[in-house]
Amino acid sequence: DRQTLVAVLQFLRRSNLRESEEILRREARLLGDDLGGNVATVATSSPVVAAVAAVPPGKGEARGDFEVGPFSRREPREVGSPCAARSLGGSPLHWDTRVGAVVVEDQPDVSAVLSAYNQQGDPTLYEEYYSGLKHFIECSLDCHRAELSQLFYPLFVHMYLELVYNQHESEAKSFFERFHGDQECYYQDDLRVLSSLTKKEHMKGNETMLDFRTSKFVLRISRDSYQLLKRHLQEKQNNQIWNIVQEHLYIDIFDGMPRSKQQIDAMVGSLAGEAKREANKAKVFFGLLKEPEFDVPLDDEDEEGENEEGKPKKKKPKKDNVGSKSKKQDPNAPPQNRIPLPELKDSDKLDKVMNMKEAARRVRLGPECLPSICFYTFLNAYQGLTAVDITDDSSMIVGGFADSTVRVWSVTPKKLRSVKTAADLSLIDKESDDVLERIMDEKTASELKILYGHSGPVYGTSFSPDRNYLLSCSEDGTVRLWSLQTFTCLVGYKGHNYPVWDTQFSPYGYYFVSGGHDRVARLWATDHYQPLRIFAGHLADVTCTRFHPNSNYIATGSADRTIRLWDVLNGNCVRIFTGHKGPIHSLAFSPNGRFLATGATDGRVLLWDIGHGLMVGELKGHTDTVYALRFSRDGEILASGSMDNTVRLWDAVKAFEDLETDDFTTATGHINLPENSQELLLGTYMTKSTPVVHLHFTRRNLLLAAGAYSSQ
């Protein structure tokens, strides 16, 4: 504003920085000796301004880092961001000249956050400003129109909030009514929240509001479109809109062709706009870790009545195959010791051997050979089924229920048994070969075990890879670790203060992740009471969590409509994926670790290339929330399950072949999605009236699905 500008000019003059003073004058169109008459205001604002201006421009670290006003509660102000401090013309003076309190807190002081909406323009003209810009954008060339239309929503929100904050309630109401219908359909939920903020008091303590204010809305626009916009706003002297663009938006400018409407629509829709291109530049080690080597004994006991001589011959090359595969280190894999992983126990090695044997008989899936699907329906689940998980070897299934119980079933003829009491155990001969059988108490054998302990609905369950433990997370804010030897609770992990929506074990065991309503995901180890890492950055609930197959990364999906990939080693966010138009509810990594599939309430399944940080596919077909996603064991088929009571199978090989990930695409984020995802759809399977909550491929590629029958 003018007072601040004059103060800066006076300071420059006193410091004999004539050249800078001239540049600033030219940019701000303050010509002539226009510094008189403002001395009174200068006295009050000068100390802060002096502190800001004393930062020499061009020192990389200092530019715009002295943020006068609030710091974001989650992400520190980005150093020298293009919007940090530019006067109207966007001059290269990187000094932030907003005068206000410097607030460095975890929770931003609400009044400080909102004070950025100080009165800046005539409230009666807001509609005129907005409709003027709208007219300009709608009349611009097609190639620019699509890009510039992205401005409508963030400007609409900030102008509305500015009116409300400055207590022009009737103007705000009329502004909202006149323009809210023009916004894209996927912002409807946000607009509903916004429409309830009609008084300044409502804005205090409103999280949506604070998020919108503290996180810059990111728009990706080509240089040509940006120049066009800047020229228009300067000619019209439309400072009001320009100030909002400078203060609240982050415009990520790229060189090259403007993007088409279709390309933009695929990527936008999250709470804070798109991801900055910088956010997806970090290197990600998406390759798999080398498997430990051990011999697979070729026993013929289980080949009953089949050609005994032929079998081992057939199996031998397969075994070598498995061995040779693990000897070569994947060039994209993380170093083996990048994060400490638990040692393999003997029982784990046995399990790996079993796994390899099963893999030898695995069905090769493809468009010509679709998997059979076995559906586990929970009947009469009046308790309200809220979560399901199936062990890797498909021997047990667990359900989490709204009545706060966790129920474990055996899916094989083998019943679930608890370990004997201590007195009985002391009588057992420790040296006998079948000691593991002897310690089990036959009297406790049953098909179902019920675990009591939570005091609210159970929203997430996860078996450990060795099947000795089970995790469950609940609305009560805790994650519990249960023993599947004794069927008792071993630990309650308290860290989240609000409902915990999801939890998952690492593919190597020991570590697990949880995400909840407090907007953060936490990484835990089973033997620590406190979390090892806290992943903060999402602007709304963390609704689902998944480990990468190499356990070095964690993906989280959120109600802010973004997916983030976090590095377990240092807790950094290394990828942000935007494109979904509703909260994310399912995540699945491809078995080779290169791709991620995500499903949300918008019914779309999006496919991402993790290495390049790009969206590479969109699968349309479901008509309701996608709650379950799973790749087949070799990654040829992607199965998706939804609230629309269907399981759909997609051709993953075709979806990921000949991807265009050249340097230009990665640099600008121009994605070219195939028009029609129907050719990737291999089959749709209806249930009678059962929403699909979980999917699982057995080691031989039989697809298991689960859900609770709903009678309505």
Number of helices: 20
Spatial order of strands in the largest sheet: 4-5-6-7
User: Helicity range of the residues?
Assistant: 25-40%
Beta-strand portion reads: 15-25%
Total beta strand runs:
29
Average pLDDT level: 79
The CATH C-level name of the largest domain is: Mainly Beta
Oligomer: single chain
WD repeats: 378-419, 451-486, 493-524, 535-576, 577-610, 619-651
Region (Disordered): 296-348
Biased composition (Basic and acidic residues): 319-330
Family: Belongs to the WD repeat TAF5 family.
Please describe what this structure looks like.
The chain has a 4-stranded antiparallel beta sheet with strand order 4-5-6-7, with no helix packed on it. Strand 16 (542-547) and strand 17 form a beta hairpin. The protein has 3 domains: 1-29; 122-274, Alpha Horseshoe (Serine Threonine Protein Phosphatase 5, Tetratricopeptide repeat), CATH 1.25.40.500; 373-658 and 671-708, YVTN repeat-like/Quinoprotein amine dehydrogenase (Methylamine Dehydrogenase, Chain H). The chain is elongated. The chain has 712 residues and is of the alpha+beta class. It starts with a helix and ends with a strand. It is built from 20 helices and 29 strands. Keywords: Nucleus, Repeat, Transcription, Transcription regulation, WD repeat. This is Transcription initiation factor TFIID subunit 5. Residues 296-307 have a biased composition (Acidic residues). It is found in: Nucleus. WD repeats lie at residues 378-419, 451-486, 493-524, 535-576, 577-610, 619-651.
Descriptors for this entry?
single chain, 712 residues, alpha+beta, Methylamine Dehydrogenase, Chain H, 4-stranded antiparallel β-sheet, 29 strands, 27% helix, transcription, WD40_PAC1, WD40/YVTN_repeat-like_dom_sf, repeat, nucleus
